[in-house]
Amino acid sequence: MVHYYYTDGKERFGPFSIEELKEKPITPQTLVWKEGLPDWVPANTLADLNTIFPETPEEIVTASNKQTVHSLSVAPKNWLIESVLVTIFCCLPIGIVGIILALLVDTLWKEGHKEAAERLSLEAGKWVKYGIIFGVIALVLYMLLMSAGILTGIGGGVPV
To answer: Is the Cβ–Cβ distance between 83 and 41 less than 8 Å?
Structure first.
């Protein structure tokens, strides 16, 4: 049976079996030693001791979680410029909603409400897209009505 020793930096404790070490106040960084090792090493460097440490959330980061962690460390897009442009060139009510949401994104991010800021960023983006779609539809209708008016004027003139 392998016996392990650990130290708290002042005293040395042991010998202990792996089962006994589970009940001791050691962490993955605690220095341990067993026969055959030339020096004390952190406990997490010994493969046979890895089973006594519960996995922490930082260790359970998958590829999809990495994107989430990264996205929460960078402020989300606030859509302010796009909202102002939609307000100026297209439709005032939709643009104003976008501006308000864009300002709330920045406020929530600065206050530390990162998830809420992410959600509002998506919502602000939707309103900007709604404004652009509405603007394109309005422009197409305007051009159709102008074309119809011109064609009516050409074909249906009043005889002199």
So the answer is: no
Distance separating alpha carbons of residues 108 and 123, to the nearest angstrom? 14
**Type of residue found at 146:** M
Residues forming beta bridges with residue 6, ordered by sequence position: 13, 32
2 and 48 in contact (C-beta within 8 Å)?
A: yes
H/E run at residue 31: strand 31-34
- Residues 77-123 pLDDT 10s: 999 999 999 999 888 888 899 899 999 998 988 888 888 989 999 99
Side chain identity, residue 36: G
Alpha-carbon distances of 76 from 55, 73, 111, 114, rounded to whole Å = 30, 9, 14, 9
Q: What is the CA radius of gyration of the chain?
A: 33
**Distance, CA of 26 to CA of 7 (rounded, Å):** 9
- Report CA torsion sign: 58, 60, 61, 64: negative
Coil, strand or helix: which one is 55? coil
